[in-house]
Amino acid sequence: MNECDKDVAESLAKPMAENIISLDVANCCLMSSVVKHLADKGLIDLEEYIASNEENEKMFSDRARNNKHVDDELGQRDAQYISEIFDLHRSHLENPE
Description:
Layout: H1 3-40, H2 46-65, H3 72-94
């Protein structure tokens, strides 16, 4: 990759990453809103959902860490990202303000 191509790639990477993160946060907020609505209507038990959510976070994080198709550093990064998204989702449910 020549220097010009590298500069173009780097200039595109940050806005793309910011958009992806914004979409993840927006999706997390939307999902939290749906879960909260279902809990408010008595269709699901919020405490039971949060406990299940914590179990799912551990399962997905462990899978990311133990993925044989990526190196350890990438697996750790993916596991951390998964945990952050799950934590954000639960924080929306536990502290909706």
